[in-house]
Amino acid sequence: MLLINLRSGGGKAERFRLVDLCRQRNIDPIVLRPGDDLRQLAEDAVARGADVLGMAGGDGSQALVASVASEHSIPFVVVPAGTRNHFALDLGLDRDDVPGALDAYEDGVNTVVDLAEVNGRVFVNNASLGVYAKIVQSADYRDAKVQTAAAMLPDLLGPAATPLDIRFTLPSGQEATAAQLLLVSNNPYQVGQLRGGGTRERLDGGVLGIVSVRVDTTADAERLAALELAGNVRRFASWNDWTASEFEVRSAGPVEIGIDGEALTLQPPLHFEIRPGALTVRLPRIVAQRSR
Questions:
Q1: What is the pTM of this model?
Q2: Among candidates 147, 150, 142, which has minimal Cα distance to 10?
Q3: In the chain, which end has fewer C-beta atoms inside a 10 angstrom radius, N or C?
């Protein structure tokens, strides 16, 4: 079965006539309507006997349906019908070939990847606090992700920006008490630019990737902006990145967070952990062969 969000990616599923393609291939399409509970639709599909679950939509929807597939130990098919689809990219899928992703149902190969979670909520890509959490909370973000990020970053990273009320432990053992950016990912990203995200070399490394950045002065902000333009943000003085199987963030109050592009507020402490090999993804055979 394939759950389909027709609104995701600016109507990408409708442009490719995904429902019709599913019926031509004997794939049962389940169209998400306004007000529907996506998790419940996925659970209902499993209860009706689905032996494969797929999701056509953005990364937030992918994560939710992937969590259901993981809980029931059935394969999961990713159809990149969202805007960015970082999960599909890092799996080796062509994000512009939406119909091609359906080949996984007819001639698919299973591969095992990790999932990450924070306070019990699964994510396939990353959870962001600070800069990215503020951007994701913006009303303009869903319709213009890159433009919104570019417009907001200077103010959010400047010396006048309010540091996060969060505490966490750096790899040195030092207690960090503030940051403008904290990114926790399902396996580490190869990050060159803050606004560009990055890609992951693998999704089965069994670790979280963690990045933190703090900007204290005008000179810091200017230096970070220059490194951002050059695609070299990792050279910034207060840049820290490391890996861990678990990670905890503490705060005096609720924490705004962006999880796979979805805006949420969670109660602290925030406990992150990796779930090695938690998800079986079924890829089109040609994609699986390229990934070897």
A1: 0.87
A2: 142
A3: C
